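Researcher: Go.
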Amino acid sequence: MRTIIRMLHEAALRFPSRAYATKKTDQGWVPYSYCQVDNESDKVAAFLIAHGIEAASSFGILAEGRPEWIISELGVMKARCVSVPLSIKLTAEEIAFRLTHSEAKGIIASSNTLDNVCKALSLMEHKPMLYYLDAADDRLARHIQENGWTEHEHYVTWETLCASGEEVLMRVPDMVDMVVAKIDEQDVVNICYTSGTTGNPKGIMLTHLNYWANSHDAVELFKLPDETFETLIVLPVDHSFAHTVGIYTAMLKGITLHFVDARGSNAAIIRNFPKNLVEVNPVFLMTVPSISGNFMKKMIQGVAQKGPFINGIFQRGLKAGIKRNGDGFHRSSAGVRLVTFFPYALASLLVFPKLRKIFGNRIKYCVGGGALLEARQQHFFAAIGVPVYQGYGLTEAAPIISSNSPERYKFGTSGMVAPTVTCKIMKSESEEAKVGERGEIVIKGENVMKGYFKNPTATAEALRTVGGETWLWTGDLGYVDEDGFLVVTGRAKALLIGKDGEKYSPEEVEEVMFNHTEILNQLVVYNDHRATTSALVTVQEDQIRDMMAKESLKTPEAVLRRIMDALHAYEPIAMKSIPSQWIPSRFALLEKPFSEADGLVNSTMKLVRYKVIEFYHERIEQLYESEQLNEQKNLEVVKRLFFS
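Model: Structure:
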């Protein structure tokens, strides 16, 4: 059987002493070997089985990335149960919904997430048992006292759970093996809830086979060698990208997963990430556009602070590197490489190595997922020598559908379709697009989900059988270019809709704007049956302040005019590829960036477009009411940001 547990057993045999996962403690980085994780997860499974937990029961997991997260999930799987990975950034109401909907028998939580979990439990009629990933501490003691809990009835600590499981195995050594022998590759192992970027979350049912196929595809796409690879996990492990590419794919090549130090609170993850990078010195990183974009911004600012001489070397070297790389697939001509040789070589000698040291001295590349990575970032990181290979997927596909890789890549695309995945671009239910034509991305393969939990209507909409074959209609738009690369252009259900009913992808417009407008921080392009297209914008405040100083802009009116000039400057370039009706003619400047606190971005920092539109409904209406009112509102923002 092609199962995750078989992958684990084989990894424990091939790499018994190699570290599978590590965590930071007061004594340093503590490793958990592949063999140790296999054995410890047996204890978790034994505890569950011995306490009468039935097969197919579900267990929520809500904790920061750590070895115990992996061990607990594998233990749940060995008991033939289902894990429900949950984001540490969910609200109590969102946690309660997922636990209730998935009919969870237990919630596995850490000290960092305990308070939020307890709030969720207070909202639930049928409360699952708490499995506490830490030793008894003050946080747990407080909730025990407040709620009148007793151990084994309401909660169990990690230490007790493992000790009890070990005692069970001493009495019945083959208990877990007998249950594991019954596992089928079509068994559901995860119910993963969508992040809700286009509406209410749905529970995606993924099987052993889904992950088996997708993990093997990841190895094949990147031609991963048998040498020891190590990475630092900063992404939330509940997210399908880190879940598959990290936890499961690691088993196939003995990859070591270091988890960012989150002791004390989850806020420590962001604080400790930079120093943990240097400490563990990873070979590759998984990232999302918000993280890589932040790195790029800080690198550019850091070099600029070194003065005009060093910054000049950097800027000229960066432009030269971008020209030399071309689109990554079609390299530059010999003439271009000759002309750009000196500025690129100088920057490669004096500047780029220092930038790369942020990642340590072993970094080979980053893998980007979670959201579309604009080509500007891809060009930047390739030029400095730390390429970010953009991929594309969705949780319903476990999640990898395609990816760029060191073997074959092209900037601005989502790479080549995975080996076992079949992909079509459909213009309609029955008409397949030709090369270069846009349509909905439709796939089939052993990585495709079983369906949505308790939601046959949504399942039937996504999984459609044509000619005896079941295809996943992704809801994403794109095309396959002349070189065979998949290009994703946006969401089918998040389209711009003109007054005449014509439709267009907002991401396609936003990509062009980001690549040619330096002052942009965040952007949402909008049109819902309007005569013109508009955009909500947050700006790079430091760049505006630099502009004010360099150009001696002394009044709010002058600053606003300069910002608007910068926002419109990309239009001649956009008109070469985008119909004019979709190019924003009006902009609403926003004082506050879109944030998780407002629910406008999800746990992987992906924009939740429909929530942004709802949140800024009044401001959007003002955009269309009159140009004078819009200018007045923008002027007020400029005054507050730069003159208060």
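Model: The chain has 25 helices and 28 strands.
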